[in-house]
Amino acid sequence: MRRTFLASMLAVPAIVALPATVFAQAIEKKKLTIAVGGKNLFYYLPLTIAEQLGYFKDEGLDVDIVDFAGGSAALRAVVGGSADVVSGAYEHTINLQSKGQFFSEFVLQGRAPQIVLAVSTKTMPDYKEIGDLRGKKIGVTAPGSSTNMMANFVLAKGGLKPSDVSFIGVGAGKGALAAVQSGQVDAIANLDPVISMLQQEGALKIVSDTRTLAETDAVFGGPMPAGCLYAPAEFIQKNPNTTQALTNAMVRALKWLQQAGPSDIVKTVPESYLLGDRALYLAAWTNVREAISPDGLLPEAGARTALRTLQTFDPSLQGKPIDLSKTFTNEFVRKALDKLK
User: Fold this and answer.
1) Model pLDDT for residues 28-37, shown as the tens digit of each residue
2) What are the residue boundaries of the structural domains of the chain, listed by start?
3) Which pTM value belongs to this model?
């Protein structure tokens, strides 16, 4: 009896000293895959920060992040079952619902799209208006991605249909740079640091810019949510603790970014993200910093803006009832914020 009592007493400190990850049994799915399209972009910087600083591991998660050429390809990975969660554009959840597939956003990474539509000064030196793009080739990260959607919207405002141009997938890194530099495309819809690098070369003339909140409001007529983590509604329902752990890590990364200086960013991201130009990468970060969500919450007004934007150029969404409340939830973010208080 005495030996049993002593053994139980000695066991207490050991339990207290165990790391949080030992209690991962509360997490329904510890090992999971996140699909992302263009991980090097500032659009997805919070995801990289959470990974590089070990925030996912701190939550008891073993996360594998798989990078694709664009958001539409990342989405296909989840639909096809090779990934669990998408780090991508919020508006995909609306498109999916219109097709009878229910996906939900659960933590916002960006409160502005950061996407820039610009024409090549090499192939279109005399560009004057959107109509000049008729019959031209526009580079996007991947067909069907958020860059494609943004280009479609700007084209529609200028009186053109998506079918009036040709969209070419160029990725979000060196391939995109080469596509403009070689004259493979006449215009490009892409993000930083790619856009800033091409601007520095004088290779682009900006047509539409959503890297700041003011510019985003001018283009879309309201707040436009951007990068986020979203997943099938069924996954979230079956794995609420896993979803909460993912959200905790991402909100922690967002809070870190609010305090981080440019040099902190450079020290944290992989060298390949700099695309060979550290100074320009830092300058590009300054351009997009306010586009990063400060807290991970998605505003209802932003969801309405996204739906209105998609309806502008997508006939399949015009007049179709969409339940926006099923495309996002702030429940997990609010719990994460309470945890950080």
Assistant:
1) 999 999 999 9
2) 24-112+225-340, 116-209
3) 0.87
